[in-house]
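User: We ran a pulldown and think these components assemble together. Before we commit to crystallization trials, I'd like a predicted model of the whole complex to look at. Sequences follow.
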Amino acid sequence: MKEINLNNKIVLLEALEYIDRDLIAETVEDLKAPNMRQAPETKKFAVRKSIKYTLLLAACFIMLGAVIPIANYVIRHLPFFPGGNPVSDTTSETAEEPSVEITNEAEIPSGYDYVLTEEDIEMMNEAYRTTLDITGTYRFFKTPEETMSRHDSHFYFGKRGDTIIIWGGGSFSDRCCFVLGGYSFEFYTGRIMFFENGKLYYFEKAIEENILTDEEIKEFYDDYTEFYLPIARKPYIYLEFTPEVEKLTEEEMRSINDAYEAWQYGIYYEKGLELYKKVPDCEKYADQYVYSTIGGDPHRFFNEENFQDYHYYGKFGNKVILAVQGSANVHTKEIGNYKFIFNRSTSMYVYESGVFTELSEAYNSGAVTKNELAAIHERHLAYYNYFLEGYKEEPIPDKLKIIDSTKPSPIELTLDEKREIVWEYIESEYDLDYSYGVRCYGKFENLYAVMIDGPYDYSTEMRDENVAGYIFTFTSGQKMVIYCEGNFYSLLEAYERGIITKENVAAIEWDKTPQ
Amino acid sequence: MKDEKIIELFFARDEQALKETEDKYADLCLYIASSFLAMKEDREEILNDSLLALWNSIPPERPESFSAYLAEIVRRLSIGRSRANNAWKRGKNVQIVGEEFLSMIDDGTDIAEQYEARRAGEIISRFLRTLPKPERKMFIMRYWLDMSNTDIAKQLNFGESRVKVTLHRIRKKLAAELGKEGITV
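Assistant: Here's a predicted model for the assembly, 700 residues in total across the polymer chains.
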């Protein structure tokens, strides 16, 4: 076979041109594009910039003695003033069809019994422009059909009395939650809009001005739970909804970033090479992960904007408690006597002096005290109260397919044990599309040494693993892992952390050679 | 308006086709272009050029997926503009497209022919079909659309670290696959 040496970057880019079109279509058709015609800076950057220039202007006017015009200008133009926060993403879902198509009146579901007219659209656009002080003829709402679409970034709730109710997705960073008439509403982002008699009300004004009757609120809530919640995305968590937590300084955040990058991603090129060398066991990551710079800037895992997304749980002395989120899969973790339930796969860490330790390990070793753990759990409950209120522990779905492994398993596990192990192992609902086998080579109280046959057994090379004085030879390239209370560890990691003992290692039924 | 109706407008040479396309897909086009072009003005020009390219190609083309066809046009024009802007060293540009992807390839002196690029493209397509759908999408978003890991994570509702790790694994597997087909990396 002719050996082709693709060593020209342009040629490889050319190769991407020849990827089958249906593969491209599959991705492009599902792509959710934000409203690109807003200012290119991020909303928060725009806020900071506008605040900076507004304050500068204010200083000039103050010096000239013009205080009143300044106050008036600032109040009307700060983006976070209620009603002054434009919804950016409502019309972003232009690549998707509306999720409900009106065919005839008999098929219109509850809350959708009012079909918007062109006059309604004009009224709503006028109200929108007026409220946000937008001059010109900008049309936020394009057509009745488009405005009445329903999906997880835009939702038409219909008309209650004289009030048209619409939720628009907005930027990713704003969570919208409120209590109206005793009912609790939560949207992962964006703003809920109430249009009545030519005016636009956001929820704060809608509550203040009582624009909905009790019955109308109940109907709105029923539509919310019946039609919106099943398709809703879960909100990000924000610190403004949580109890008071000690803030980190910029320097502290930077130092956590540097340590996290070095620990997770190995080599840190631009700077901090010294820091990398101080991170324990950094060499073992060196050939696994090399992270890139983007546009010349070093990568930052945590930054000012996303830091709150990663659940900062506060400081206890020199210890910083962090939770890092993974894929969207309800995840529970028991530490001490406390149960932490997350709406995403989440790892909790204690960061101290450049080192990250799992919270459970830190607690078991005494590095985190009982009182500190109680405080962390209390904060967790506050962060997740919206989620936990409606949360029911779900059984492992029937859809999860466990099959007999083609290779022998020295220790036979029950189907329930296999299902539990695989359920913790998989990362997202997409993984339920596959079948899994579980082979067990050791079982010690609540510990299992297993190999899992599934789509993600990425091949590593044939290799030896040296654990507790035994050389395990793996010729298939598959991993053996230790499963313990919802967590997975490599053999070596489990031994070094004290999760398994030397006796456990010796008892694992695998061909191994004493060193 | 449904894509089929928009295509019919193109076939009828009705300029309403361009307006409908812009209304429906402007954000998508600008979003794709934003991966390659930092300047807002450049992206708007690409949008206009893309609409013109659509007008000139439909008919006779009758794309099965209108949005994907348009995305392809936008991408090609954006890469061309990016090269023309000579922005190879800094900012959002083609060189940064999957830097880690390109790093799989040895630097050498030979220039591959277009035939070899096409063949590599076929191999990549075949490889992508063996992956689960989310991973396929991740690959296309990262290396065809040049989206950042952060944006990919948001689109697919994954954690960013999962995106990075998954892409790393995909690259390794792809390198192995290319190697099996006689393409040295």
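The mean pLDDT of chain A is 70. That may be worth checking against your pulldown data before setting up trials.

User: Thanks, that helps.
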